[in-house]
Every structure is written in C-alpha cells, then in structure tokens.
Amino acid sequence: MPDNPIAKRRTYQISDKANRLSPSGIRRFFDLLASTEGVISLGVGEPDYSTPWHISEAAIKSLEKGYTMYTSNSGTPELRRELSRHLMDEYDIDYNPDTELLITVGSSEALDLSMRALLNPGDEVIMPDPCYVAYEACVIMAGGTPVKIPTSQENGFEINPSDLEKLVSEKTRAILIGYPANPTGAVMSRNKLMEIADIALRNHLIVVSDEIYAKLVYDTEHICFATLPGMKSSTILLGGFSKAYAMTGWRIGYSAAPAEITAAMTKIHQYTMMCASTMAQVAALEALRSGESSVVEMVEDYNKRRRVILHGLEDIGLSCFEPKGAFYVFPSIKSTGMTSEEFAETLLTEEKVAVVPGSAFGKYGEGYVRCCYATSLDNINEALLRMKRFVKKFSR
Amino acid sequence: MKNKEILKILEDNARATTKQISAMTGNSSSEVSRFIKQAEKDRVILKYKAIVNWDKVENEQVWALIEVKLTPEKDVGFDSIAERIYRFPQTRTVYLVSGSYDLFVLVTGKTSHEIADFVSQKLSHIEGVQATVTQFVLKRYKEDGELIEEKEEVKRQLVVL
Fold it and tell me: Disulfide-capable partner of B109 in A13, A80, A111, B115 (CB 3.0 to 4.6 Å)?
C-alpha cells in the first residue's frame, strides 16, 4: 500500500513557528512560586497603584452612557487627536492623527504589528541582550530572525553603536530597541542614540523604538527616538498607557509611524483585533487629558523607592549600576557563585522573596536578577532585609 | 536639598526615621535631621500625630461640623472672633472660609449633649457670632487621606515579565 499522507497526520501537530518560541526558560521557577505562600514579590513588571480614579471613572461613565460598540479600526478620532497633541507637547513632534497613529491593544500588539508589517521570511532584526522577552518572540512569529547585541553592566546596559554596526547585514531590516529598558532600567544617552540613528539612516533600516517606560525616568530626560534628526520617517514609535498611568489591565497602547507603515499595521490590526477596547480608549483619552499630575506623583514615589533599593543593594554588597528609568534594578549576583536561576529559586525557598532571573531576558542577563521596586516601601525594606540575610549566608 | 520631599514623606509617615528619609531622598542623614529640626523650630512642622480610627476602640466620641456666621463689627476683625472660638479646647479645626458662612469649626466631644452645650452656652454667646448651624458627623469614610475601612488588597500576579 502506498503511504497515506492523511494517516500520517497528527491532530495536535504544532506549527514550526510556535515550536520555535522558547517556552519561558524559567517555568520551574514559576511553578515553585505558585506553590509558595507569603512571598514578597519584586518580580512584577507593573505599577502597584490602581488606575487613578478619574481615569477609571471616565470609563465607567462611558459604559453607563452605552459606549459599548466597536470604534474605528485605528481608534477613536478624539483619542488619536489628543495623542497627537500629547506627542507634540511632550516631544515637539508632529504626527498626523488620521494617517500616522494607530491605537492598539497594549503596546504589545503594536510591537507584534510592527514586526508583521516589516518583515519578510529571513529578515533580521537587531536587538539588545538582555531585553524584554517579547522582542525575540515577535520577530520569530513574523518570520524574522532575531540578532542580539550583547550589552553589559560596565556600559550601563546601553547599546554600543560599533557593536551594532558590526551586526548589520544585507538581511537586516530593523533595529528594535526599548529604552528605558526592561529588565535593566537603563536609558540611552543622546549621543549613543544619535549614532544608532546614523547607522539606521546609512543602511536604510527602520528603528522600532519601544518607549512604554518613557514617563518613568529619574533625574534625566527621556529622549524620543523619532525626534532625532531625520528619524521620524524611519522610526516606529511604540507607546502605551500601562506603565505611566498604572493601566496595565486595560490593555491600551499605540504606534506612531510613517503613513505607509501605519497603513500596513492597520490592515493587520483590522483583521485580528478590529479595534482596541472602547472603554479602554475612553480611559486613555482621560489619562492624556488630565492624568499628568498623577504621573508626576507616581514618578516622585518611584524615585524614592529607587533610591532606597539601590542604597539597600549597596549595603548588601550586590553590585548594581544606577538605572535611570522604568522601575527595575538589575543587580549582579555573580559574587554568590550561583546562576541567576539558582539565586532566584533559592532566595524564594529560603527567604520567600521573588525576583526574576536575568537569564529570562537573554544570555547576557545571566549573573543578574531583575528586582522591580513598584511595591510599597515596607515591602522593599523587608525584601532587602531578607536578601541581606540570604547573601550573607550564601556568599563565598 | 529636597525640602518639600522630606515634608511629604513625614506628612505620610511621621515615624519615618532620618536614615530612611536620607535613603529615600538621597540627602545625607545629617542634612535631613538639620532640616527637620529647623522645620520644627519654624513651625513648618507643627506636630507629629497618629490618625486614629476611634470607632475600633470606643464609640463615645462625637464629631460635629459647625458653620458659624459672623457679624463684622467695628474695630473687631474676623481674626479676633476666630481666636475667641479656637481658644476652646473642644475645637479641633477652625477655618475662615468663603461662601454663605464665615467660619468652619470642627468640634469633638464625648456626647452630643456636650457639643449642644458648647454651641448654646459658649459659641452662640460670643460677640460677633450671628448664627450657627451644627451638623453631627454620622460616619467617617476617609480621614486625612486615609480610608477608615480596611484597605482592599489589590491582587497582583507575583511575577510579570
């Protein structure tokens, strides 16, 4: 009998693409976490505030009024206009609300769309290592190949432009960066960003700049990549409301990009999401209109916690560069002789403090752990106390 | 020196130690304690106190908000009438306000009788006091920015990448 291809089929055959996505490297750690009680967590990646009440209230009111239908695919015109004004106020950059802005389901969707709109099979996207976990996955899902630039504590986890230039090849399509950075809290200096812009322009590359943490910078100013000379037409700016306005659960973000790219992203968005949640768009509009004072207050608070945790880590003897953005510190745990996963696991079982192994964010995150300080000062102080005991016990 | 920051920290938690404040603000401990001493001396910091939920301890305390309308009189400003009122230890807060009355007075007492006596025997007899409206507090929801009820625990995932 000839081979019957139908008989060979497996019902649960998973696509090669899905199989290529690395299952979270720290699954075991997650399982352990789920079964441990009374944990102080420095492992979250979101604000510990509830959404400012006036923002939630605006959404509740809109539900009461019956605004529960689809919106335009790109997002409500009011929100796009307000966003355009906001970007103008904030960075003095002019985006056309009708053709260059797209409201998405979190900046995560915007990241996915940008990759799907840009990449052909085999196209390469250069990104820093360590970096946010979704960067690599989104490139793979879009058929591209991630290419990593090692970054290090010595350089404050900034990208070294000459390292970047060496990785540019015929296949390179885009550079994907995210500063302020998850997991390191690093920000990039204007000079280095200018050099990256120069490399991008010379090689006709698009820079996808994930600026979800733009509002969370301390004692420095955020530089929007698209504002660098000549870069607006070569940048896809990704932004969102989650981190600045404590709106993670609303899932609302945006992209700002040249009209051709926005049109392509909108097409994909139209067939997959239709539109971002209507009530989240109402909330986002309120956030842009009058959320600024809450942001200022939260940033002041984060900065206090940032100083406390840095001070505490220094006291413990874990070396840590001073991060100027987001709400993470990324101390080196090399002095303990453990891998970052061992450190996180043992710290959890011995002292019930949750941190995230740096290795979850790439090869060059090994030897570090990510601690998020978006939690109460009491929690931070208690966690530091426990970590001190732990490091003392396990240091060699 | 981040003076306002130090005051805000203390306003939120009067028990924050110099060392903690120094870590939070990045000022040295000695700078912080020098600033606090000066602020106490200058009466920028008036007092350190706890916000107490008396409902959990006893039910005897009665609060009343009293609106006081004054008659402006020759040679006697509002300040001096206010002084005659705030001298009474029963008054907890006294504000001069805009609107349909002049002084807002928050009074506490053991019983409503005690407060009624204070209003009828003391307050209404003060020269310049034209009229009073007393409102007894039935329930406190929020006090100095703090919710009286137990705080709701916001449930977060333990790890989010």
Answer: B115
